[in-house]
Amino acid sequence: MTDRALSVVRSGALTTVQDQGRPGHAHLGVPRSGALDGPAAALANRLVGNPAEAAVLETTLNGCALRPRSPVTVAVAGAPCPVTVDGRPAPWGAAVRVAAGALLDVGPAHAGLRSYVAVSGGVAVDPVLGSRSTDLLSDLGPPPLTDGTVLPLGRPEALHARVDVIPHPAPPSELVLRVTQGPREDWFTASALRTLTTRVYRVSSASNRIGLRTEGPSLERAVPGELPSEGMVLGAVQVPPDGRPVVFLADHPTTGGYPVIAVVRPADLPAAAQAVPGTPVRFVAVRRR
For the whole prediction, is pTM greater than 0.90? Predict the structure, then answer.
């Protein structure tokens, strides 16, 4: 086996391979998938000299530990967390050189949920439908990492400019999601529409890569019954029978039978990837562009 590889020593709560996803396959029932916090993944890649589309590792809550088989440059972005190399502190949000056989440990997030680990050359698992992303709903791409997994790496690009400081937003203390009206807004009462955009919800611990679930006031329906399944988009705010809004994220189903009351602006979705359970959520109505 090539020495351009990473061995997974500790896989953590949930660590997956992610890139920019596989858009354009909804007609096949395949969601976009990809890194939930796209800007953080792109930043980590930039720090190690990878193109933005290179595959990275997305960790959840408690990070992971990796051992490269050859010298590599790594960077960790996204949720702030402790980083060590063979037990010695290393910087978060900066390029770090890791020797062959050394142990890179990405610790638990101090704030936020998901950290992104980029390695020079990118994670080079076989692509499926043009993407290396793990899709938890469709079961496409590589499975979530387990201890002992060996990941192939690509060849690094030419030397790149080093940076000392990076701008990066902090995980949200309050998640503000701008929404436009959804295709089934008329299935809800006027009171429900006011409730959605004036009351505060909280992120539920049942949230995952498929959707951000909320806790809070129930939204009253004006139309009973269910819809025939219809297409769903990234950021759709679907309302299941319990009346609590669910914001569809990268691994969302491509069709669904619950009405969509609103759609979140794409620019606001990366923050949703870092909102821990209990984070206040406000839906703010905006006009369509």
Answer: yes
Q: What is the largest CA-CA distance in the chain?
A: 62
pLDDT digits over 168-198, tens only? Answer: 777 889 999 999 999 999 999 999 999 999 9
* Measured distance CA(276)–CA(46) in Å, rounded: 26
Angle at 163 between CA 8 and CA 56, to 5 degrees: 25
> Pairing between strand 175-181 and 280-285?
parallel
Reference 83, options 69, 102, 100, 56; nearest CA is: 102
pLDDT tens for each residue of 151-164: 999 999 765 656 65
Of 2, 3, 34, the closest CA to residue 16 belongs to: 34
What stretches of 70-217 show up as alpha helix (H) in DSSP? 190-198
Among the listed residues 152, 8, 12, the one whose alpha carbon sits nearest the alpha carbon of residue 67: 8
d(CA 124, CA 67): 16
**245 and 203 Cβ atoms separated by less than 8 Å:** no
Spatial distance between the Cα atoms of 84 and 52, rounded to a whole number of angstroms: 25
User: What token pair was written down for 218?
Assistant: 């129930």
Q: Rounded to an integer, what distance in angstroms lies between the CA atom of residue 165 and that of residue 184?
A: 45
Q: How far apart are the first and last CA of the chain?
A: 52
Please, which residues bridge with residue 18 across strands? 56
Collect all residues with Cβ–Cβ distance below 8 Å to 85 and sequence separation of at least 6: 96, 98, 102, 103, 104, 105
CA dist 82 and 122 (Å) reads 22
Tell me how far apart the alpha carbons of residues 282 and 279 are, in angstroms, rounded to a whole number: 10
- Partner residues linked to 56 by β-bridges: 18
As separate numbers, helices (DSSP H) first and strands (DSSP E) second, the chain gives 3, 20
Residue 246, CA distances (Å) to 9, 203, 263, 269 in order: 35, 10, 11, 13
DSSP state of 173: S
